[in-house]
Amino acid sequence: MRRTPHPAPRTLSGFTLLELIVVLFILSLATALIAPTFSRPFGQLRLKAAARDVAALCRFARMQAITYQGVLEVVMDRRTNTYWLRGPDWIISRLGGIEHVATAEDPEQPWEVRMRQARVRTLSPGLTLKSVILDTGPVPEDERGAIAFFPQGSSTGGEVWVSDEKGRGVRVVVDPLMGLARIHEATNA
Prior knowledge:
Layout: H1 17-68, E1 72-77, E2 82-88, H2 89-92, E3 101-104, E4 115-122, E5 127-134, E6 137-138, E7 144-149, E8 158-164, E9 169-174, E10 181-186
Antiparallel strand pairs: 1-2, 1-7, 2-4, 3-4, 5-6, 5-8, 8-9, 9-10
């Protein structure tokens, strides 16, 4: 029988422990440097989205006030960081896509129009209604304030600052003459 020569022993290829540790160190360093840049835009996006939603509700209230020839209000509750649409029952009941409706009636004034509130929104955790300034002045932290929209398109006007925990803010300004809501970015609220 013929003997086959033994092949030369193969050298094992791979990474040493030291090489793996160096690569993991470089990856963790890169992650530590890059991760904060990813979280910053997401926080800003959340803040801008909340301000856009407040402005959209103001625009919707203006449009519906003109359409139905009635007065609608956008109410802001600084204590609970919520905001909603409020108006006469006959207007609110005609609006489609209402997720939540609550009826408020003043028993001391039964002749008043029955008011309903709808489209109740709560700001995301970490966001607050930092400041609400109306035509009557600033709204204290534990109170509610409202911007009214009238049938001719005007409003009582106001300014709402939406802020995050880092102090960044975006403000929504409602013009009293035209009733238009505009968004203005700001660094500190």
